[in-house]
Amino acid sequence: MRAAQNLGVQVERKNLNSVPLFNRELGILAFNERVLAQAADAAIPLLERLRFVCIVSSNLDEFFEIRFAGLVEQAINDPAHREADGMPVSEVIGAVQARIRALVASQYELLNSNILPALENAGVNFLYRPEWTAQLDTWGRRYFEEQIFPVLTPIGLDPAHPFPRILNKSLNVAVELEGRDAFGRDAKLAIVQAPRMLPRLIALPADRFGENAFILLSTLLMRYVDELFPGITVRGSHAFRVTRNSDLFVDEEEMTNLKQALQGELPQRHFGDAVRLEVGTDCPQGVVEFLLRQFDLDEMDLFRADGPVNLARLMQLADAVERPDLKFPLFQPAHPVHFADADTVFSAIAAGDILLHHPFESFDPVIEFLRAAAADPAVVAIKQTIYRTGAESELMEELIKAARNGKEVTVVVELMARFEEETNLNLAAKLEEVGAHVVYGVVGHKTHAKMLLVVRREGGRLKRYAHMGTGNYHPRTSRLYTDFGLLTADDSLTGDMNEVFRQLTGLSKARKLEHLWQAPFSLHENVMKAIQRETAHAKVGAKARIVAKMNALLEPRVIGALYAASRAGVKVDLIVRGACALVPGLPGVSDNIRVVSAVGRFLEHSRVFMFHNNGETKVYLSSADWMDRNFFRRVEVCFPVLNKALAKRVFDEGLAPYLRRDAGVWQLDSGGNYNRRASATPVQLRLLSQFAARKAAPAAVRLRGMRKSLKALKARKA
User: Fold this and answer.
1) Other beta carbons within 10 Å of 200
2) What is the pLDDT of residues 4-46, one digit of tens each?
3) With DSSP H G I counted as helix, E B as strand and the rest as coil, what are the percentages for the chain, rounded to 5?
4) What is the pLDDT of the chain when averaged over all its residues?
5) What pLDDT shows up at residue 711?
6) Annotated catalytic sites, by residue?
7) Which residues does 658 contact at the CB level (< 8 Å), separation at least 6?
8) Which of 453, 653, 646, 628 is nearest to 549 (CA)?
9) What is the rounded CA–CA span in Å between residue 26 and residue 96?
10) What is residue 390's predicted lDDT score, i.e. its pLDDT?
11) What residues are paired with 620 via a beta bridge?
12) Which H or E element spans position 667?
């Protein structure tokens, strides 16, 4: 099956970096086409197929809010600008809009013709365009009058009532009117804004409509909107939605306090410049033109929806229906056997590095590690970076407990984590309230590294224990994303980590690290050197190989180095989930490079880099993709897996399965097409089966040492 074509590159076009590149924006959209292909896969349970449709809509929202909005700004500020692949920005905008229009049309076609009818046959009824039986009409009108009507404020448009401010991505209804009101004013058009506190998806009473029957708030609004305009004729009602530029602007040169600057900027996010208008297919052209004028948009910015204007809201339907037969089978993540017989979590880690592979293995050991550190009287200090952790985070609660227990707690909170700014501000405030040291990283360089460092007093000396990972400290996403984590007490690794923390919290020159590659200082240089080392080995006839897995590959110099490696004979396998600017399979340029993309039940999120190194294989895990921002505008770490057995595990689980001919991955060709390889068992399902077959410690096992620590702490307090 073919997911995407024409990524926007013409190989003969001269680009800005003199290397062939695919266009980034079109690469992002190609990824979403691969996600939508999951929704079309009849082998996937129905409600999960619906989720994939919703994920595409959510991704497109963010694409318009950030990436597309940036293109529009670029076109205004520098109309002659060309993207890294050489495409003029105006050409990119047109290509992106056309590609999205086709993608959206495919979404609604799949939803209306396939998924919703199949759900209805399975007993799940989503009444988007219902037949208004007397029973449904009676219930709907009463629900509207009791639950919706009291909180609505219709805005009739006239000189005294200008067009209201419309929140980003909010639900609104444009109402066509005819007649005169009590003051003698002509009624022509009104806007009804749906308050965000109202549920968008409403379950119908099971005793009257059967189990699993749902209707949208927008459907009820448009059906009964006449209740808001007594004595006035309603000629039509049309749901619409506007998407706005949501990128935050913080002037680093003028700013003196990042926290205050961010708090001042956040409220304006909902009212940035409009970049997209969504309306139903039946919305009259006159209403459309009026709305476009209000938002200062052109016809090309209009997207007509053959269904709900916000498909992302249907994610609630998949969550609300309790039908295990229509969802992926539940799985229980394995628990590493290292902890089952250990006296304490610290003795388990001290015995040797422990590798965790999520979601196939549980995230609980990381939580147990922090829980033990918070309670253990021997622990004197805890340092952690936070990028995304969620509003209700058990990890944050443990850090708060640690501070209350007298530990020296230092947390580097990244306030500029996109769409998590408010959550992180609130978490920072809670930590500060209990006396934790909270710092906000480095202005202009997002702290994206995933590090947790614990200092413990043992036998008159201080010993460090640590966790590093490829993913966020987020227990929920650890069950949804593939990531690796490493628990270690290795002095050289923890010493490097301590140096990175010192840089983040203090003011000093960057020192050379023993093992860690750190952005923005040494990561790009070391990746380039590792690629060039393989190239040198290939030139003298030695075996040379690179296998790398990441979310995106965009940095031109690294791509150029990979092209040089390919020309020298290095075998290069790249597993790139999302946008890939590198063009594989070009004669004389990238003949030896293969690019595949895995899309499945879990979001592929781990970054793994393997270099053959003339037989002394080096395997690295990282928080960083191979992108400009990760190399030069973020604080990232890339760390080696020093234990050879664990390094082999990383290769065997995180790289090799994706390169099998029957892995079910998508392969990118030199023309920009992604073609899916056939597979009876996709790679993620194969890994699930592999881990389920392993003997693992029971989930209910608690460390004996954990209980010892808690008893000791209680005794000390007593």
Assistant:
1) 16
2) 444 544 443 445 567 899 999 999 999 999 999 999 999 999 9
3) 40, 20, 35
4) 90
5) 54
6) 448
7) 549, 575, 596, 598, 665, 683
8) 653
9) 6
10) 77
11) 609, 640
12) strand 666-668
Distance CA 287, CA 191 (A): 11
Residue 562 token pair: 């990979």
324: left (phi over 0), alpha (psi -120 to 50) or beta: alpha
Is residue 372 exposed (0-12), middle (13-18) or buried (19+ Cβ within 10 Å)? buried
Q: Which residues lie across from 156 on neighbouring strands?
A: 190
Residue 591: how many other CB atoms lie within 10 Å: 13
In eight-state DSSP terms, residue 165 is P
Q: Residue 513 and residue 522: Cα distance in Å, rounded?
A: 9
Residue type present at position 325:
D
Structure-token match 């009101």, residue found: 181
Distance (Å, whole) CA 98 – CA 443:
37
Q: Beta strand pairing status for 593-597 and 571-576?
A: parallel
Is the CA virtual torsion 294, 297, 298, 301 positive or negative? negative
**Strand residues in 220-367 grouped as ranges (E):** 233-244, 274-280, 302-305, 354-358
How does strand 274-280 pair with strand 172-178?
A: unpaired
Distances (CA, A) of 276 to 27, 292, 310: 20, 9, 13
- Enumerate the β-bridge partners of residue 189: 176
From residue 339, give the alpha-carbon distance in Å to each of 185, 349, 376, 707.
Answer: 75, 9, 17, 13
Task: Name residue 205's amino acid.
Answer: P
Report how far residue 525's alpha carbon sits from residue 548's, in angstroms, rounded to the nearest whole number.
16
Distance CA 316, CA 233 (A): 34
Q: Look at the block and give the residue holding tokens 């990282």.
A: 622
Q: How much is the CA Rg of the chain, to the nearest whole Å?
A: 28
Q: Which token pair is 246?
A: 């949501």
**Residue where the block lists tokens 């800005």:** 16
CA 664 to mean position of chain CA atoms: 22
Does pTM surpass 0.85?
yes
Residue pair 52/35 in contact (Cβ under 8 Å)? The answer is yes
The HSE-up count of residue 167 (CA atoms within 13 Å, CB side) is 10
- Residue 309 and residue 260 in contact, taking contact as beta carbons nearer than 8 Å: no
CA neighbor of 473 nearest in space, from 548, 556, 386: 386
Distance, CA of 172 to CA of 190 (rounded, Å): 10
> How many CB atoms lie under 10 A from the CB of residue 361?
22
In whole angstroms, give the CA distance from residue 59 to residue 614.
41
Q: What are phi and psi of 152, to 5 degrees?
A: -90, 145
pLDDT tens per residue, range 567-598: 999 999 999 999 999 999 999 999 999 999 99
Distance, CA of 56 to CA of 33 (rounded, Å): 8
Give the integer Cα–Cα distance in Å for 293 and 653.
54
Distance from C-alpha of 453 to C-alpha of 629, rounded to nearest angstrom: 25
Cα 388 to Cα 250, 473, 474, 606, 704: the distances in Å are 20, 7, 7, 15, 31
Overall size of the chain counted in residues: 718
299-302 own/partner pairs: CB under 8 Å, 24+ apart: 300/94, 300/97, 301/97, 301/274, 301/275, 301/276, 301/277, 302/277
Question: Amino acid identity, residue 250?
Answer: V
Task: Find the largest Cα–Cα distance for the chain.
Answer: 90
Other beta carbons within 10 Å of 194: 19
Q: Report the DSSP pairing between strands 437-439 and 481-488.
A: unpaired
- CA–CA separation, 677 and 670 (whole Å): 16
Nearest residue to 423 (alpha-carbon basis) of 459, 358, 472, 495: 472
Residue 549's pLDDT is what? 98
Apex CA 480: angle with CA 478 and CA 484, to 5°? 45
Residue type, 686: R
Which residue numbers in the chain have pLDDT < 50? 1-6, 8-14, 253-256, 695-710, 712-714, 716-718
